[in-house]
Design goal:
This protein is mostly beta strands. Helices cover 0% and strands 46% of the residues. The mean pLDDT is 95.
């Protein structure tokens, strides 16, 4: 059973930056398309960014130009660099495959507030 562990969240002011990390146990990480998802209070979980094993990326319109997804297959780790953060980016952020095939981790809270 592959386990996902997210980290790097926190409280940041509008316009600030955070870098999230997601580490997966197991050696099959490299074959999956990995995605970062988020869920704000009262809203459905949404996909914000995805990266294929070869490095091609895709972003939700709401984060395009501000967020960058990357991965290190040797470390079984995916990253989400978030710049120019806005209050509407406040959510719990999760990683999973795309589509989501694995058990969800605990997520990491990102709060954007002054």
């Amino acid at each position: 059973q592959v386990q996902l562990v997210e980290s790097g969240g926190g409280l940041v002011q509008p316009g600030g930056s955070l870098r999230l990390s997601c580490t997966a146990s197991g050696s099959i990480f490299s074959i999956f398309i990995m995605g970062w998802y988020r869920q704000a209070p009262g809203k459905q979980r949404e996909l914000v960014a995805a990266i294929a094993s070869g490095g091609s990326t895709d972003y939700a319109d709401s984060v395009k130009g501000r967020f960058t997804i990357s991965r290190d297959n040797a470390k079984n780790t995916a990253y989400l660099q978030m710049n120019s953060l806005k209050p509407e980016d406040t959510a719990v952020y999760y990683c999973n495959t795309r589509p989501s095939l694995l058990q969800w981790g605990q997520g990491t809270q990102v709060t954007v507030s002054s």
